[in-house]
Structures are given as C-alpha cells and as structure tokens.
Amino acid sequence: MYAIVDIETTGGNALQERIMEIAIYIHDGGKIINEFSSLINPECSINTFVSKLTGITNEMVAHAPKFYEIAEKIIKITEGCTFIAHNAPFDYGFLRQEFLHLGYVYDRPVKCTVKMSQKILPGMPSYSLGNLCEQLGIVINSRHRAAGDALATTKLFEILLAKDPTLSQISTHGLNTALNTAIFSSLPKRSGIYYLHDENDTVFYLSKAKNIQSAILSLFQNTSSKKSVEIRAVTTRISYDTIGSEFLSAMFECKQLEMLKPKMNKTKHFITFKYGLYSYYSQDGYLNLHIDKISPSHKPFTSFVSMDEAVTFLYDFRMRFNLCQKFCGLYQKNGVCFQYEKGICRGTCKGNETVEEYNKRVKEALKTFRKKQKSNLFIIDEGRDESEFSVILIENSMMTGYGYIDKNKDLTDTAILKNEIAHEINCRSNKWLVKKLMKSGKVKKMVML
Q1: Whether 331 and 382 share a structural domain
Q2: What is the mean pLDDT of residues 43-68?
Q3: Looking at the structure, do residues 230 and 284 belong to the same domain, yes or no?
Q4: The domain containing residue 422 runs over which residues?
Q5: pLDDT tens digit sequence for 186-237
Q6: How much is the pLDDT for 299?
Q7: What is the pTM of this model?
Q8: What is the pLDDT at residue 271?
C-alpha cells in the first residue's frame, strides 16, 4: 500500500517554515482507494512570492485547520503505507518536523519518484515533476497545489510501476534465508496484530495494523531505513492474529507489548492523563471552560493525555453546543470573539445573551457529556471475516470483555450480545483506549445497556 503525498509550504526550510496544504492519495498498486486533502493554517504569514507561485493566500488559510487538528487523520490514513513523493526528502522532512512540534515521531518507509524515474527512465532532460509530466503526457491540473501535484505524482508512479513491476515486489537481497516468502501472498487484509520472530523463534517486534498484509509488505519492501533492513535480516518467521476491530487490535497490541516486551519495539510508557477540562465563573458571572493540569483536589469533567488532545476536544465541544470562544479560553484578544465577527456565534461576549441563558446552556452541555461518560454499552465493530461482527462490552468506561457474533443474529438484543462475550483482555491503557474510541465514534453500532 502506498501513500502518495504532496505538500505546499511557506518556504523551503523545514525548521523555519510550515506546511500550508497537503494532499494524500492511497494507492494499492493498481488504483487509488482513498484520498485526503486540506489547506492548513500555518500560523505564520505567507509571503508574496509563495502566494503568487501557489495561489494560496493568507485569507485562504486563515480559517483552515491547524496541523494538530488533522495530524491524527494523516497518521491513520498513511498507516501501513510506503510514503511516496516527488523529491520525497522535502515532503517527508517537512511532515516529520510538523509532527515533532507535537512531540510525535512520524515514521514511514519512503520512496522518491525522482530517484525511481532516474533509474527507470534514464536520459530524461530533467526530472522535475513538470518536465517529466510533459514528456510522459501527464496533465497536471492545478500546478503547485497539493492535490494537483499529488495526483500527477500518482500517475507518474503508475507509469513507473508498469515499466518496472519489481517496485511493488520484495527484494530477496538482505532477506533472512530462513523466512518462507510464500507467506506474503497469504497474509490477511484485515485489522490485527503481526509478530516477527528471530532465529530462536522469539518475537522481537510486533505491531497492530489496519491491514496486516499491506503493513508487512510495506515494511519488507523498504530497503532504505535502518529499522527495515534489520527486520529483513533478522526475521525467520511471521505470525499474526486476525482481530477485525481496530480498537481491539490496539488493545491487543498494548497487552502483548506488556507481556512479550519485544526488543525492537520502543518502550511504551504507561499513559497518564495530565490535563483536564474545568469550569469557573468570571467576575461578571459567566460560566467559563478552560483546560488546566489535573489537580488531585479538583476533579475535571474529563481528562486528556496531552494539551493538543485537550484543545482539539474543546474546539469540537464548543462548536457542538455553540458556546462562546472567549468563555472557552479559545480567543484571547480584546473585544468580541472571532466567531461573532463571522456571524456564526450568538454574541454572548457582546452581551447579546444573558448570564442566566448562557450558563444554562453550558450546564446542559456538561450534563450531556457526564451522562455519556457513565454509560455502559456494547460496541459492534468489524469482525475477523465478512460473516461476523466483533462485540465489545464497555462497563464504567472500561472494556471488560469481547467476542464475535454472526451478522444474522439480532444485534439489538442485549442478552444475545452478552452471551457472545467469551474473552477478557486488559492492559494499562484500557481506559484511555476506550475514551479515544468513544470520542471518535468510529464503530458500526452502539447498544446501550
């Protein structure tokens, strides 16, 4: 699986400039199967030269999401993929730097269509994207915009792949001779955990994957990163657990890391909730919301692992209940909030809503949130194959059991669902994983108890 990426930036130095647009096409070696593109607020000014080159202005990005707001989307859509770009060190370097600002190390196998073109198409007068596309008859719509350039890079990659099919194959050079390569074609294309074994049959590396086959192929096709080269040399056997549900896969990964402690996996520290959502009354009586470090003496409405996670949640929470930016600590300037200036706020900070009316709305919003926290429910999610769903039991914000159920059974009958809970699994990150799942809402169905 390939993630073909193009970015537009405010300048050429990843340490000083920022990404202002990104486009990603997910390609399975035959066709595009998914895509994502977005303008990004770079939180800095775009100079005139860059605006003329790209057509992207400061006004266009002013209301675009900031990078941290789409970071999780980028991680998820490129998971298990080889990162491909034209002049990949530039795009990949910028993307890694943006993630480093958030304290996250973004790591994907990388291939560059410039280097591939130089190898497969020797003698071209130039290997810039524009010149290659002109020589090969590829039409670029919206040149110097992320979506247009990424799509042109995708078409170029397809041409290169057709001329040299080995690009999608696993080279045997440097591969451990004890590894049976026939397994690559028989790996499942569903979510689960894969395990890499060394000569002593000890698991030295494991990982969850949305698509087990795609993740392993991407890992073993990569011959450029130090990690992949070592994995190729050490692996004598590959095993896996097909799980179906991405949530269950994450839970399994956490538990297996605790139990097996594979030497090539980075140590995952116990997840702690450092920040919380609190409220206070301002001098004029308005109920304000704010994020602060968790205090043992002051119980928050909800808690977060990082400040970025907390702020992202508060932005969504404010929008869902149409609360005032200023009274949520999201607008620090004097005067009315930005949302009111754009005509999409009730104008509470301008005095258009009484203290009593606004405070009542805030309390109702918080009450709704607390109700959701206390709910016990079944979650219906993807199964191990097309004939079943997974059933996950959540009690008091913790996963207490799971099982699998035939798709033809009554999925609304809690007694039937309870009877299918046949397994228990727990890990130190149980509460955090459940909370993350509930916030995302990305499941097939929820059945309340």
Answers
A1: no
A2: 92
A3: no
A4: 377-448
A5: 899 899 999 999 999 999 999 999 889 888 988 898 777 788 899 999 999 9
A6: 83
A7: 0.60
A8: 59
Q: Is 27 a catalytic residue?
A: no
Q: Which residues contact 205 (CB under 8 A, 6 or more apart)?
A: 195, 196, 231, 262, 263, 264, 265
Amino acid making up residue 174: G
Strands 82-85 and 110-112: parallel
Alpha-helical segments (H) within 146-186: 146-163, 183-186
CA-to-CA distance for 60 and 39, rounded, in angstroms? 8
pLDDT in the model for residue 23? 96
Please state, in angstroms and rounded to a whole number, the distance separating the CA atoms of residues 123 and 135.
12
Mean of per-residue pLDDT scores for the chain: 88
110 and 25 fall within a common domain? yes
- Please give the torsion angle defined by the CA atoms of residues 413, 418, 423 and 427, in that order, rounded to the nearest 10 degrees: 100
Average confidence (pLDDT) over 280-305: 88
**Quick one: 71 and 147 in the same domain?**
yes
Q: 350 versus 8: which is more confidently predicted?
A: 8
**55 in a structural domain:** yes
Is 265 domain-assigned?
no
**381 and 399 Cβ atoms separated by less than 8 Å:** no
Residues 132 and 156: beta-carbon distance below 8 Å: yes
pLDDT at 166: 64
User: How many domains does the structure of the chain reveal?
Assistant: 4
Catalytic residue among 144, 197, 290, 298: 144
Instruction: Tell me the C-alpha distance between 206 and 266, whole Å.
Output: 10
Given 101, 133, 168, the domain boundary residue is 168
